[in-house]
């Protein structure tokens, strides 16, 4: 492995459900060679686990602040994730 790797748990709030946010997130993450997952939460937010090179994770967080065209992001909260198994790809889980 070259470079630093990072794993973050992310919660995105605002108008982020019903606007294609999960599909958009999965496409963007795959484009950046990230692995993990994204899902809708019952409270109307979107949660994600993002794992990859530190620079790619940083880029993904910046993109999450914008989101897809119809989204209106009010907050992106991140925290370090402790993972026991690294996913092999990026999936929509819920």
Task: Report on the architecture of this protein.
It is globular and about 35 Å long. The chain is built from two helices and five strands, in the order βαββαββ. The chain has helices at residues 21-31, 54-66, and strands at residues 5-15, 35-40, 46-53, 72-80, 90-92. It has one domain: Alpha-Beta Plaits (2-Layer Sandwich). The mean pLDDT is 95. A five-stranded mixed sheet has the order 4-1-3-2-5, with helices on one face. It has 94 residues and is an alpha+beta fold.
Structure summary:
It is built from two helices and five strands, in the order βαββαββ. It has 94 residues and is of the alpha+beta class.
Total count of domains: 1
- Low-confidence parts, pLDDT < 50 over ≥5 residues? none
Radius of gyration: 12 Å
Largest sheet: 5 strands, mixed
The rounded distance between the terminal residues' Cα atoms is 30 Å
How is the largest sheet built, in terms of strand order? 4-1-3-2-5
Please provide the count of β strands. Answer: 5
Topology, pairings included?
Blueprint: E1 5-15, H1 21-31, E2 35-40, E3 46-53, H2 54-66, E4 72-80, E5 90-92
Parallel strand pairs: 2-5
Antiparallel strand pairs: 1-3, 1-4, 2-3
């Amino acid at each position: 492995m070259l470079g630093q790797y990072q794993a973050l748990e992310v919660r995105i709030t605002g108008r982020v459900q019903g606007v294609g946010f999960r599909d958009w997130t999965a496409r963007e993450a795959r484009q950046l060679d990230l692995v993990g997952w994204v899902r809708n939460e019952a409270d109307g937010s979107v949660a994600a686990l993002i794992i990859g090179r530190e620079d790619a994770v940083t880029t993904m967080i910046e993109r999450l602040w914008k989101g897809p065209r119809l989204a209106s992001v009010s907050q992106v909260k991140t925290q370090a994730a402790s993972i026991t198994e690294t996913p092999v790809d990026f999936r929509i889980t819920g």
